[in-house]
């Protein structure tokens, strides 16, 4: 059945994709330069099997990759490259990882639009992760010492966010920093981390900590509490 769906998709794709994609120009400027660095600007270098869900028209199968630097979902059709239009009603699954375009803001009202991956969703809050790049620029040859130029480097990183009512704050994976973030319950969380032997760089442990923080907050009130209050707001 899946094969039939894929065949039908490729028959209608030029018409359907025109509704939620646009052709991309050849890489220029900084993007073209970064392609020469060690590492990759893509979360998945090769195009991978994916599903695009358009809430207005249905589900389609295509090979996608996520350009982290430009924060776009790319696909090829023949010699041409396209990007999926950024819209909250259009999302994708690449290798089972969900990519949703979200229009988030920080406490200060700064826009944080982009593709996020939900890793835990509840009735009152959600935890997301987002791909990011650490870029080390190349160093030119030193005319005084004659030392060789070092190549530019790109390292793929993952950052986490707690979201409530469209507002997000970053979730550090460092124990000291996250206790500052959740400063109103820092003593209880410190004990919880020790007791449960949590490693906050693991998604499941970070989710577990946020869930416990939510329980602590709501145990002292008769209604769901805003988890983004009583914290250092440094976003």
Please, could you describe this protein's structure?
With 235 residues, the protein is an alpha+beta fold. Strand 4 (72-77) and strand 5 (80-84) form a beta hairpin. The protein has helices at 2-17, 29-34, 175-181, 186-196, 203-218, and strands spanning 21-23, 48-54, 58-67, 72-77, 80-84, 90-94, 97-105, 111-121, 126-136, 153-164, 167-171. Helix 4 (186-196) crosses helix 5 (203-218). It is globular.
Number of discrete helical segments: 5
**Strand content range:** 35-45%
Intertermini distance: 47 Å
The gross shape turns out to be globular
Biggest sheet strand order reads: 1-5-4-3-2-6-7-8-9-10-11
Mean pLDDT across the residues is 86
Say how many strands there are: 11
Estimate percent helicity.
10-25%
Rg measurement, Å: 21 Å
Broad structural category:
alpha+beta
Largest beta-sheet characterization? 11 strands, antiparallel
Question: Concise description?
Answer:
By secondary structure, the protein is an alpha+beta fold.
Name some characteristics of this structure.
single chain, 235 residues, alpha+beta, eleven-stranded antiparallel sheet
């Amino acid at each position: 059945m899946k094969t039939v769906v894929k065949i039908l998709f490729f028959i209608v794709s030029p018409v359907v994709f025109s509704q939620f994609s646009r052709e991309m120009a050849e890489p220029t400027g900084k993007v073209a330069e970064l392609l020469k660095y060690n590492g990759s600007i893509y979360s998945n270098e090769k195009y991978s099997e994916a599903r695009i869900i358009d809430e207005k028209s249905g589900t389609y199968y295509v090979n996608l990759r996520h350009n982290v630097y430009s924060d776009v979902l790319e696909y090829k059709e023949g010699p041409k490259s396209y990007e999926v239009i950024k819209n909250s009603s259009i999302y994708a699954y690449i290798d089972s990882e969900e990519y949703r375009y979200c229009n988030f803001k920080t406490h200060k009202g700064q826009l944080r639009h982009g593709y996020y991956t939900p890793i835990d969703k509840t009735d009152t809050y959600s935890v997301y992760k987002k791909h990011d790049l650490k870029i080390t620029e190349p160093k030119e040859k030193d005319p005084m010492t004659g030392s060789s130029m070092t190549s530019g480097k790109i390292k793929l990183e993952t950052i986490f966010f707690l979201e409530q009512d469209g507002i997000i704050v970053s979730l550090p994976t460092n124990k000291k920093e996250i206790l500052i973030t959740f400063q109103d319950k820092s003593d209880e969380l410190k004990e919880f981390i020790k007791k449960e032997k949590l490693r906050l760089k693991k998604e499941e442990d970070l989710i577990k900590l946020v869930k416990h923080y939510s329980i602590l907050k709501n145990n002292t009130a008769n209604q769901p509490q805003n988890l983004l209050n009583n914290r250092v707001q440094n976003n």
